[in-house]
């Protein structure tokens, strides 16, 4: 399980631009997920960056599954499935208001931060989610220097 999750916003969600920002920050692609409201395209599929297309993903599963898969976080092991409720694959989302989508569900962000990042996604920007062990300050500084905005460590 990672020690920290670093989250930030990139104003341009074009895959080539995101790749340039990530390269400038020197981030390990295996610890990185980029949430975007754009539909999947050949540019996304061919990218070394792992893009999560939130509108598609929200219809299929919890984004937490994609963001934490292989990291040892609880949702990686079946997560919040509730017997009698989840047999239809609905997850705990059956209790949510359908008009409110929380693209950041499962990351464990404080409500205000999650709302800010959700807004960025809905505005057409993309959100970078990076996991790291140990000191997160160097990764945070590298992201800021590369042009990632609103970078926070959780």
Characterize the structure shown.
The protein has 154 residues and is α+β, with helices and mostly antiparallel strands. The radius of gyration is 15 Å and the shape is globular. It has one domain (4-153). The chain has helices spanning 15-25, 42-45, 54-60, 63-68, 111-122, 137-145; strands at residues 4-10, 32-36, 51-53, 126-132, 149-153. The two termini are 13 Å apart.
List key phrases describing it.
154 residues, globular, alpha+beta, 5-stranded mixed sheet
Q: Summarize this, please?
A:
The protein has 154 residues and is of the alpha+beta class. The protein has a five-stranded mixed β-sheet.
Secondary-structure blueprint:
Layout: E1 4-10, H1 15-25, E2 32-36, H2 42-45, E3 51-53, H3 54-60, H4 63-68, H5 111-122, E4 126-132, H6 137-145, E5 149-153
Parallel strand pairs: 2-3
Antiparallel strand pairs: 1-4, 1-5, 2-4
The helix fraction, in percent, is 25-40%
Q: What is the general shape?
A: globular
N-to-C span = 13 Å
Q: What class would the helix/strand composition place it in?
A: alpha+beta
Strand order, main sheet: write it out: 3-2-4-1-5
Order of helices and strands: EHEHEHHHEHE
Number of domains: 1
pLDDT below 50 for ≥5 consecutive residues: which ranges?
Answer: 84-100
Total of helices: 6
Strand content: 15-25%
Instruction: Give the rounded overall mean pLDDT.
Output: 79
Largest sheet: 5 strands, mixed
